[in-house]
Amino acid sequence: MYTLTGVSKTFRARSRARGMVTAVQQLDLSIADGEWLAVQGRTGSGKSTLLQLLGGMDRPSTGSVVLDGHDLSAMTESQLTELRATRVGFVFQAFNLIPTLSAIENVEAALVPLATPAIQRRERAAAALAAVGLADRAGHLPSELSGGQQQRVGIARALVKEPSVLLADEPTGNLDIDTRDEILSLIEQVSTANKLTLVLVTHDSAVAAHAERVAVMHDGRLTIDPTDTPID
Ligand SMILES: Nc1ncnc2c1ncn2[C@@H]1O[C@H](COP(=O)(O)OP(=O)(O)OP(=O)(O)O)[C@@H](O)[C@H]1O
C-alpha cells in the first residue's frame, strides 16, 4: 500500500519573475492494496504531479511517498528505475506508443529494461495483447489501429511487467463515449483480475463514479470524501 505524508512538490517556474510553483501541497494520503482511487480536479491542480510522485517518476520536495514500506523519496535513481520497470504500470491519455514499432513490439519494449530474454519477451507480450483482446493485431503499427485499440496496446504494455500498481492519466480522455466505456471496463477488469492498486486521473465524473474512492485536487491540495463507498 501507499502512504504519503506531508508531500509537497514545488517547481521553479520557467520565467524567473514567477518564482516557484507549488504543484502539490502538504498531502497526506493512504491507498490500500487493490484499491481503485480516482483523482479529479481542474487543469493545473496537480493531478499529474501526484501520479508522477506515486510512480517514482519524480521526487517530492518535502515529505515521503512510501510504497510497501519503501520510501520512494529516499531511493537512488537506479532503484526508482527498477521500481518503474517492475512494480508500476502507466497508461497515458495520448497512448504514447512508439509509431515505428508494431503493437507487440511496443508491449515488448516495456520488458527491455528488465533484460528479459527475447523469447520470453515475445511470449509475455503476446499473452498481454491477448488479455486485452488484441491478439489478432500484434503486427499492426499504431497508425493502423483505432484510438481504442491503441489504448488497449497501452494497457498491455503496462500489464506485461506484471505490476502491482496501475497509474492512469486521463486514459479515456482521447476516446469517444462508447470507446471510453469499453476501455474503462477493460481497466477495471484487468485491475481486479491482477489485484492491482488503481489510481486514475480523470476530468470525467462519469469515469470517477466507477471508483471506490474519489479524491479531488484543488490548487495542489487533496480532499477525499470519507463517506465515499464503492459503487457497483
Ligand atoms: N516540470 C514542471 N515545471 C514547472 N511547473 C510545473 C511542472 N510540472 C507541473 N508544473 C506546474 O504544476 C502545476 C500542476 O501541474 P499538473 O500537471 O500536475 O496539473 P494537472 O492537474 O495534472 O493538470 P492537467 O489536468 O491540465 O493535466 C501547474 O501549475 C503546472 O504548471
From TrEMBL:
Q: Name one GO molecular function term.
A: transmembrane transporter activity
Q: Where are the transmembrane segments?
A: none
Domain of life where this protein originates: Bacteria
Q: Does the keyword Phosphoprotein apply?
A: no
- On whether Cytoplasm is a keyword of this UniProt record, the answer is no
In terms of InterPro entries, this protein maps to: AAA+_ATPase, ABC_transporter-like_ATP-bd, ABC_transporter-like_CS, ABC_transpr_LolD-like, MacB-like_ATP-bd, P-loop_NTPase
List the CDD domains hit by this protein, alphabetically: ABC_MJ0796_LolCDE_FtsE (cd03255)
Positions of the ABC transporter domain: 2-231
Q: Which GO terms describe its cellular component?
A: membrane protein complex; plasma membrane
Key words, A-Z = ATP-binding, Nucleotide-binding, Transport
Cited PANTHER family: ABC TRANSPORTER ABCH.1, IMPORT ATP-BINDING PROTEIN
* Annotated protein name in UniProt: ABC transporter ATP-binding protein
Please name the source species. Rugosimonospora africana
